[in-house]
Amino acid sequence: MPELADTGRRIKELRVGAGMTQHDLAGSDMSSSYISLVERGKRIPSGRALKILAERLGVGVTEISGGAEPAESGGRVRRLDLVGRLVAARRQWEGGDAEGALREFRTLAETESAGRQDDVYTEAQLAIAEILGSLGRADEGAAVLLRMQDALAAAPYAEARLRALIALADLLESAGRVQDGLRYALAASLESDRAPGTGFHSLLVLDVLTRCAYWSGCAHWAPDADRGRPPADGVLPGPRAGIDLHRALDLWDRGEADRAAELLADTARRVTPAAGFRLWEKINGHYALLLLGRGERTAARSIVERGLVVASVAQEPDFPLWLTTAEAVCAEAAGDRARVRALGDELAALPDTGRSHEKAAALLEIAAAHERLGDRERAAGYFRYSAELFRRAQAFRHADRARERLADLLEKRN
After folding, report:
1. What span, in angstroms and rounded, lies between the C-alpha atoms of 179 and 212?
2. DSSP-H helix ranges across 217-256
3. DSSP string covering 271-282, please?
4. Which of 36, 102, 235, 390 has the largest CB neighbor count within 10 A?
5. Rounded to an integer, what is the distance from CA 195 to the centroid of its chain?
6. Neighbours of 69 (CB within 10 A)
7. Where do the domains of the chain lie?
8. Which residues contact 172 (CB under 8 A, 6 or more apart)?
9. What is the pLDDT of residues 174-186, one digit of tens each?
10. Please, what is the angle between helix 321-333 and helix 297-314, to 10°?
């Protein structure tokens, strides 16, 4: 059994040699502080963690966990070079050069296409699809992931195939094709049940399945929602927080307001912007709307004001859709018609591409606010717009609800 300090030292040497930071090596399923503890010999990585770290470093598990230090070889040097280029391409992407990063990821995918397809090839292909999705080219991104599925044999590449299915479901939901996303999320759920050693990815599967099922109008298709929930005093990771958000929204839709409020309050308390600003603001915006629905205006206003300050200070590029929606409903509660109109116009002017079902749901709240203020013409226009966006996004049951609200409004007006 090798000394723990030796394992940590080897991990650090390989990471530095590949040009990776501790954050790069940690990825989305570990933390930088955990990597630091492992490298200093303060933590014993599990077998699962060692496998993930080895794949990201482009080496075998034995090179970091046991046996004699292998001699440096041309193959290992090449692997380290490819991993370094992969990290550099991701930094290029994060720096705003999406097209340049896309070219580099494509070069890396072509380099690896005839070799080991479980590391650099997989990461490059997943990055290509994600970039294409962010550029509004979801069909191209989906084609990349489908080709990746065809290229990977089921037995030796079960984990890579599962990651491709998760990415495909997420890409389609992000593009406003929720039922297409649900189909692949269900396939990922079946694959996760069959594939060995994919415990971490089961949470990602449940996240995208819960999301797609909610917007498709069949939230009950997402099972075991309480599985793997951290202790009551722990910070919620992004996927877990996303699951709880959509569970709470479903409870609210079904009239179980108290259970929805309890779950969403706990989720809002335990999630941080580190889980992703878009998710964080969505949770806080929805929680503020729920509080407004229960008459707790002061608490809701406090959440909105704090959230908008965080967005401004952090200079987040993502528009705070749900905090802005909650701000409009706060203005409606205060009787500020002009502010409600201004914020409604701002939301309506957002692009209809991407998650159009999210925009549709926000406009539904704006329509209801105008209806409560007695501005039935504007309310009717927003109800129509919301229903049409839901329809485009394949969220047909939500579209039916919007049309029902419109019909009720028109009946009252007549």
Report:
1. 7
2. 238-253
3. --GGG-HHHHHH
4. 390
5. 22
6. 10
7. 1-70
8. 138, 142, 178, 180, 181, 184
9. 999 999 999 999 9
10. 140
